[in-house]
User: Which sequence fits this backbone?
C-alpha cells in the first residue's frame, strides 16, 4: 500500500470528509493484491488510528475524484447513510464533456439498471430500470468541449456518466464525459460495438466538487467544497 495521506477537508468527532484522488478505490477491491487493498478507508485509518471506523457511507467510481464523507463510528455511519437514503444530502459535480449541449441547463430523468450481460455498464431500460435524476447547468464552453455543473438527485451507479453519454433524442445529454473509458463519445446503446470511442484525456474528467449533509450528532448543516483539478 502506498501510505500517502488523503486530504481531509473537514471533520467532526465522528465523521470525516476527504478529497479522493482519481485512481483510488472508494472501498477494497476483490482479491488479496496490495492494489486491491489500497483504498480510501485503509488510508484514512492510518491517519485516524483511534477511530472506530472509518466506515463507508457512499462511493465514487475509482476514476472519479472529489469529496467523500465517512463515518468514524457505527452511529455516524448509520445516520449519514439514512440521510443519503432520504436524499437530504446535496452533491454537485464538475464535468468536462465532449461536445456542447444544445441548451444551457436542464434535468435528465432516465430509468437505468446494470447491464447484466456486460458488467459494469449501466443501460436505459424503460421496463426494469430504476428512476435516475440529474440536474445540470452549462458553466463554460471550452472550444469543442463544455464544462458543466451536474447535481444528481438520485445515486445510481454510473448515473452521471450514462446521463451524459445517452443521446439527446433518448433523453440524455448527448455529450459524454471526456476520458470515459466505458461510455466514450458517440455512445449509442448497450451492445459492445455501440460503446463509442474514448475522448483523449489523462483521466475521467468528473469531480465531486460540493457535498452538504447534516452533522450526525449536532444536526448542523455541513458544506464542503473542492475545486476541480482539471
Assistant:
Amino acid at each position: 500500500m502506498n501510505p500517502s495521506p488523503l486530504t481531509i477537508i473537514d471533520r467532526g468527532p465522528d465523521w470525516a470528509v476527504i478529497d479522493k484522488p482519481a485512481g483510488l478505490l472508494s472501498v477494497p477491491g476483490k482479491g488479496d493484491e496490495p492494489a486491491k487493498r489500497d483504498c480510501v478507508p485503509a488510508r484514512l485509518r492510518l491517519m485516524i488510528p483511534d477511530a472506530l471506523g472509518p466506515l463507508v457511507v457512499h462511493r465514487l467510481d475509482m476514476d472519479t475524484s472529489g469529496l467523500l464523507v465517512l463515518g468514524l463510528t457505527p452511529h455516524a455511519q448509520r445516520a449519514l447513510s439514512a440521510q443519503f437514503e432520504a436524499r437530504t444530502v446535496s452533491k454537485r459535480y464538475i464535468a468536462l464533456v465532449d461536445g456542447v449541449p444544445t441548451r444551457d441547463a436542464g434535468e435528465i430523468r432516465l430509468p437505468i439498471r446494470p447491464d447484466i450481460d456486460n458488467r459494469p455498464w449501466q443501460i436505459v431500460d424503460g421496463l426494469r430500470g430504476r428512476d435516475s435524476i440529474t440536474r445540470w447547468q452549462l458553466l463554460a464552453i471550452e472550444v469543442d468541449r463544455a464544462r458543466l455543473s451536474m447535481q444528481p438527485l438520485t445515486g445510481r451507479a454510473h448515473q452521471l456518466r450514462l446521463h451524459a453519454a445517452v443521446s439527446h433524442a433518448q433523453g440524455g445529454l448527448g455529450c459524454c464525459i471526456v476520458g470515459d473509458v466505458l461510455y466514450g463519445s458517440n455512445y449509442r446503446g448497450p451492445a459492445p460495438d455501440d460503446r463509442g470511442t474514448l475522448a483523449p484525456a489523462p483521466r475521467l474528467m468528473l469531480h465531486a466538487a460540493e457535498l452538504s449533509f447534516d452533522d450526525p450528532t449536532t444536526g448542523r448543516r455541513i458544506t464542503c467544497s473542492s475545486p476541480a483539478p482539471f
